[in-house]
Structure formats: structure tokens, C-alpha cells
Predict the 3D structure of the following.
Amino acid sequence: MGLMAMRIDAGLVLLLLCRSVPSFGQVTVPDTPAGQKLAAWLAAFNRGDLEAYKAFLEKNYPSHHQPADQAMAFREMTGGFDLKKVEPSTSDTQVALLLQERNSDQFARLTLEVESAEPHKIVGIGLMAIPRPAEFPLPHVNESELIAAVRKKLDGDATAGHFAGTVLIARNGESVLAEAYGLSDREHKTRNQVKTRFRIGSMNKMFTATATLQLVQAGKLRLNDPLGKYLTDYPNKDVAAKVTIYQLLTHTGGTGDIFGPEFQAHRLELRSLDDYVKLYGSRPLTFEPGSKWEYSNYGFILLGVVIEKVSGQSYYEYVRDHVYKPAGMTSSGSEPEDQVVSDRSVGYTRMGGGAEHPNAETLPYRGTSAGGGYSTVEDLLRYANALGAHKLLNADYADMLTTGKVDTPGGGRYAFGFDDRTTNGIRCFGHGGGAPGMNGELEICPTAGYVVAVLANMDPPAADRISQFITNRLPEK
């Protein structure tokens, strides 16, 4: 990927712990207490030696909270970091860097603060993913070069155990690459195929939002109406009166999440959307509706309940009849986990510690309007094509569905069940999904003429990183 190599060995780690001025490629770390400690931490982290990393933390960062083995699992996933830029600082006890993961195009900002007194122990380290800065552009390539680069990336990631799943790239509605990697069922040695069904997590928020706008387009629902107009018996009257359909679609309603101890305690008892309302419907708002953006799975549960009330069908029937069928999506659904679904992969997770293992104990009873169904990369392309051909919504409502409305922390804008962002000069909209043992991404890039769909039966960011790699390099028209 053309990244600067940063070979780390035990001698270099010891050197960085001394009062030298280390440099990484063309980037020099400041000769300050914070700069010295940050360089030493980065060297220890990149080395990937658990015991050496523990020893570094015990000596230099005794107040740390993250277990060292979790940090080293993160190191394995990222491949470590290359230092790209030191940001200006007015303090010797604070420093900030821009880093890039070695295994992907992802950038991050690393901040570190140390005590002012010797031996300048670390008091805090912050690491946050950020959009790729404009000063570090990636080259756009032609289609044949893109396909060759993607295959090389996939071969490497699959061999390293970082990817198992399917990848599809389409131009002007037609596939130009569709390939599968790894095993869908390790116990039975079944290989992934392009037709393999994968759990898609939050990706079916796109289908829920499409269904909602269909009802708006038909005049059966109004975006600025409060939730309580449609759910007249909703338990919390404050939520019912204040939160609008628009706010549910944009994650600005303050309706909170569904995951946590309550979900784990009732995971297999939550069999219908109404069951979620019975469990969470009395909760207060987490903030004043419309005042901020905060991702809310529960908000999309409520949209599913509204769809049921307004359409007279179950959520699953409505999406089947009005989204999947018109789009020709024959391999998508949300059947309960205790039903056999042919060609559905087994998800494998490292979450919870230990070696990768099936994710069965994390799965809900069935997918919901917030996520958890299954699909294939081919069905996702059919959905993108149907949306673009206005088979699901007319042109005005399709544009409304996918055009960003609220700024999000990742640098994009959230539309209705879609992320809308411009990366490396190319606008794409779509949605990802991730949970233990599953990860997926659909990106629709209309000006460039491409659709990218990636599904994986592994923990995030297995699919995210592949999708990002592709969209960062798409040919410019």
C-alpha cells in the first residue's frame, strides 16, 4: 500500500525509552516529555509482544484501564500504526499525532498526556478513528488496476485470517468483480460462495428507511408527525409527544439503544417488535429530540412498529412485499435463528476472549427493523439498482432517502437510514453493519457509477476495511 515501513525491535524499544529524538520515516517526534513517551508507547505497541507491552505499561502508565491483551488484539487487527504527522502543540506534557493503520487506509488521531514532574508518567492516551485527511490523498486508478489491487488485498487479508466473506464491485449496474473467500462453516469445511447469505447487522436500516418513505410517499405517514400519532398507546407519553418520524430516521430523537444488560437478560424472549416496546417503552428520553445526533437502534425498532401500524402488515411481510420483491432480492430475510436457512454462513467472533468461535450465543431471536437480517452481495446490488431505477421510491423520495441531513462524528452526514459522505473526492451513500461474527457494507457511488458490497462472517472491521480500500481508489469519471 506504499506505506512507510517502521521496523521495531527490542533495541529500538530501549532506545525510545531514553531521551533521544526518534524519527519515523520523514516524521520526527518532538523532543519533549510527552513526545518521548508517545514514541516509546508507539514502538512498544507496534512490536506486538504482550509481555513487553505489559512491562511498558506497568512502568510508564500505571493508571491505564484497558487490559494489555485487548490492546494486542487491536494491534493484530490493525497491523500496528505508521506515523504520518505530528500536530502542533504548545505544551511539553501533551502531544498529538496522525497515524495510519498498516493493514488498511484508516487514519487515527493519537493524543497523549504525561505528568509534568519526572519521570513523566503517562496520565492519558486517546486514540480515535478519523476521516483520511485531504493532505494524504490516495491515487484513483483505472478499473483493471482497481480489480488487480483488490484481489491482491483480499488474498493477503484472507491468508492472514483478516477476511472471510464475499465482495462485489459493479459498474453501471453490472458486476465487474464478484468473489468469495474463506469458509462459511468451519466445522463442515464449507467454503463461502458469492451466493452465501451473511447476517448484515444494521445494514437493513436501509430497508426500514425505504419502507418508511414508501408510506410517506403514499400519503399514509408524515415525516414531521410525532410518534404518538401512530403509536397512540406508547408507554412514555413524553417520547410519544416529542419524537418525530424524521428524528427517528436521522438518529436525532433521543430514544437510546437496545443493547446492554437488559438485552442480554431477555435476548431470546424478544420475539416481536412489540416485545422490545414492552421492555424499553417506559424509558425517558436521553436528550431533547432534535438537539443532537446519537445512533439509536431503538429508534429504528420504533419505525418498524410504525410501519406495522400504518400498513396493517407485520414488518417482515411489508419489507418482503414492498422492498425485496420489487428489487428482485430472493436471498434476503430475517427468519428466526432457530430456523434453518440454506446457504447462511456461520459467524465467528473473538469477542469475549479466546480463539475465534461461533457467535450463536450473541444472536437475537431474529432480526428486527434495526438490524440483524441476512442478505447476499448480489441481493445488495439488486437493491442498489432498484433504488437507482426508482422501482422502490420515485426520484424525489429516493434523493430524500439518501441525502445527508445531520453531521455525524465520523465526518459524514446521516440521511434516512443511510450514511452520506465524500471520500477522496467521490460521493458514496450506504450503510454498514457490525456485531460479533458479522460485518458488512454497501456503498452506492452514483457519480462514479459504482456499487460496492462486502459481507463477512467475522468481527468488524473485516468487511469495512475492504469496502474502504475499494471506495478510496475508485476510478474518477
In short: The radius of gyration is 24 Å. Residues 10-130 form a domain with the Nuclear Transport Factor 2; Chain: A, fold (CATH 3.10.450.280). The first helix runs from residue 10 to 16.
